[in-house]
Amino acid sequence: MSTARPRTARPDEAFDLRKKVLRLETLYDVGRSLPAARDEVALLEDVLGRAVAVLDAARGFAALFETEREAGRVAAVGFAPVPEVLAVGGDPFVLDLCRARAPLARPSESVLGRAAGSAAGVPFALGERVLGVLVVTDREARGGRAAPFDEDDRRFLGSLAGLLSPALEGIRRLEALAADLDRLREENRALKGTLAIDDVLIGDSAEMRRVREMVARAAASRVNVLVTGESGTGKELVAKLLHAASPRRDGPFLALNCAAVPEALLEAELFGIERGVATGVEARVGKFELASGGTIFLDEIADAPLAIQAKLLRVLQEREIERVGGRHRIPVDVRVVSASNADLPAEIRGGRFREDLFYRLRVVEIRLPALRDRREDIPRLAAHFLARIAGRDGKAPTILGRDAVKALLDYPFPGNVRELENLLEGAVALSGGRTLASADLQFGAARSEGLSAGSSDLRAVEQAHIRRILASVQGNKSRAAKILGVSRRTLYRKRV
After folding, report:
1. Is the pTM of this model over 0.90?
2. Residue 182 within any structural domain of the chain
3. Which of 79, 179, 199, 376 is the most buried (most CB within 10 A)?
């Protein structure tokens, strides 16, 4: 009686078995990683890399579409150059995949304008909507010959698509919900009439943590606060926070830009005017009276004339005001928050600002850092602004591509946070898609002048920005000052 020996698997059978196990393990790993995925582009790049490796492909690419008419971002392995965006109809094989709504494999094909010995691909579809595609080409030779992609390969790609399609849709819904949440928070703060310091002063840098701590401490006191920093860093926002978080929150908050009011009218704006001072002049209550019981914010305080500075000093000392043409002193209970982007000690040395007023205003000084000095906060700030823009416009949230994030981090932002917000608002308006690329960002003079974040002369960045604005308005300094958000006096002080 003979005993049958177990059959030894042939080498090709053993290889096929290992290949099937590898594909099952890959699908298992992808399925486990999906619940933690929050970035659709990063997820697609990861899956593309796995597909290229498992299917022995030489090249591959994946694209996400905004809609059937709008182009989407592209990730690629082995293709060069790669288009930054790709529309559904931007490639014949991609178009066939979208029409078939199923995996396809072909022995020869032209993909992204490049001849391929073999190609396979799959669309990511949810219902009637195609979210994107994944394509691999040119299977590498094994055993001396290159076999085309087969039915097993199509099934593997179909399984990937079955896992990824709902995950991609889930990420997009989470992004939309996050935008809605930010919008609701904004509306809630508006309804309550208060601002949360941590929600408004955005950033995790050491500089912004210090600013938030100082704002919280100063808000609880009655002392006058001087807010300093470059244009666009958010000085008025800090003033509003100081009021909203203070015991005076139920009182009025009034703001006055000292550079925006002609010198002849500034005194009346601040302290009021009595009827009959001049022909046709009616009585008017000034900002200090109107702000009694609350806070007055004096922006661009360095641009107040010396005569006004003397009267401000008397108000701060005596807590009383006199209207223009008036004979009676009127008591006021006002907290003063002032701001300046000028170097006030230098203004004092130049005889343009009173030293005694400076110390009355600067009981506490909160200095806001330039955006280039807290570069690590830029991605979070950008996400906040994009969510706010989406909520305001009632659209799906826009996200930043990796090249756009890098471009933002490399730019010195002479206009600081205000410039970042305006830059993103313009990019969203012009791009039309859900992902912003670096090409969508219309940078200002600092980029065109060839200056980078590593420039040793940051003053040159600011001056290049001012020169560009002046050139755009044919040298009209009044218009340039308005565009830059500074006074003519501040513009002259820059000595451009």
Report:
1. no
2. no
3. 179
